[in-house]
Specification:
By secondary structure, the protein is an alpha+beta fold. It starts with a helix and ends with a helix. Helix 3 packs across helix 7. Strands 3, 6, 7, 10, 11 and 12 form a 6-stranded mixed β-sheet that branches. Strands 5-4-13-8-9 form a 5-stranded mixed β-sheet. The protein has 11 helices and 13 strands.
């Protein structure tokens, strides 16, 4: 009995401590919205980060996820009867349930992915499904909040205890991330060899070593090599038009391709340096600052001039001629950039003076007829 009493007392103390950590209801609601928006923002920005120095962004993304788990638990503990008791259902209950499904879906697929579960659901990887749930969650949380809209009050956030609560949430997130990494290593799970981005390795050399993926709707017909022409123009002295044979200049570089759908591969790429292309066009004008690479589909991406000059327009991978699915006749190889920035089926290289803001829109609409 004494042991039972001690266990009960310890349990009561734990519950009391958790109750003291729980923020006021209004603070929980607004914090959930803020955490979800921050989670979506860090997730989207992480798509553009390919260098190890960017690891804090991924750490923050995962820490926010742990915070959402805690906030969601507090929220559900308070409102569970509204969901489980049919007598308390309202028209907004369906929206609440849908929001909960999206939240649980995002959290569950994220956890499964970091432990190395690598499955496809139709065309999508598990990481892509995670991203889909996350993007859906933002408008759902906003719509759900609008059904019970209450402005936050200073009293809900101004106490020192509130700062301690949020520090504890983020600290718990960081600690959980480290524990998860240690568990992957100790158990030798499939998640142990992920990059800091979360991407899993694809081994081998050549076209068959890594998946064929395209951004959104890009799916052009194969390009005839004999008919292919690459335009090099813009702020250059002598615009040029090159054939596929002109691009096989024999330059090679080893580069890591990290795809935002959740895999990475290290390959030997062969082709021509972009700096060589610009020299073939007589060099660039003084005001040149960016180089834009445009696909046959209209998809495009720009690199700063200095970075672009060291990039490669590849015609070969792993000693093999590029396959159509991997961007033949020529694709951009941009080390330290994520895969969606490695433009496939490049038909134009344009030197520009200004950054191309429109490329962000094109990534969403290219390939649609």
């Amino acid at each position: 009995m004494a042991a039972t009493d001690r266990l009960r007392a310890a349990t009561d103390r734990l519950h009391a401590a958790l109750d003291r950590l729980e923020p006021p209801p209004r603070a929980v609601d607004w914090s959930l919205f803020a955490f979800v928006v921050a989670e979506a923002t860090t997730g989207l920005v992480s798509f553009t980060v390919g260098v190890p120095e960017g690891w804090p962004l991924f750490w923050l993304h995962r820490s926010l996820g742990v915070g959402i788990v805690a906030l969601l638990a507090w929220k559900l503990a308070r409102v569970r009867r509204r969901i489980t008791d049919p007598a308390l259902w309202r028209r907004s209950t369906a929206l609440s349930v849908l929001t909960l499904v999206a939240a649980v879906g995002a959290l569950a697929t994220g956890v499964a992915w970091v432990f190395g579960l690598d499955v496809r659901i139709s065309y999508w990887t598990l990481l892509s499904v995670h991203v889909g749930f996350g993007l859906a969650l933002v408008p759902l949380v906003a719509a759900h909040a609008s059904t019970r809209f209450r402005l936050p009050r200073r009293v809900d956030f101004e106490r020192r205890r509130t700062a301690v609560r949020y520090f504890a949430l983020l600290a718990a997130g960081g600690a959980t991330y480290r524990v998860q990494q240690a568990a992957n290593d100790a158990l030798d799970t499939a998640g142990a060899d992920r990059r800091f981005t979360g991407s899993q390795p694809r081994e081998g050399a050549g076209n068959a070593a890594f998946p064929i993926t395209s951004w959104v709707a890009d799916d052009p017909d194969p390009i005839d090599r004999d008919d292919y022409r690459l335009a090099v123009d813009g702020l250059v002295s002598d615009p040029a038009e090159l054939t596929a044979a002109d691009l096989a200049a024999g330059h090679e570089t080893e580069a890591l391709l990290d795809c935002t759908s959740g895999w990475y591969t290290v390959q030997e790429w062969g082709g021509i340096r972009v700096g060589g292309l610009l020299e073939a066009a007589g060099g660039v004008d003084e005001e040149a600052a960016y180089v834009r690479f445009t696909s046959v589909t209209g998809y495009r991406w720009s690199l700063p001039l200095e970075e672009a000059e060291d990039a490669l327009l590849a015609t070969r991978v792993g000693g093999e001629r590029l396959s159509h699915g991997h961007g033949a006749p020529a694709r951009l190889v941009a080390p330290d950039r994520r895969g969606f920035q490695w433009v496939k089926w490049v038909t134009r290289v344009e030197v520009r003076a200004e950054y191309d803001l429109g490329q962000w829109v094109v990534t969403l609409v290219s390939g649609f007829d």
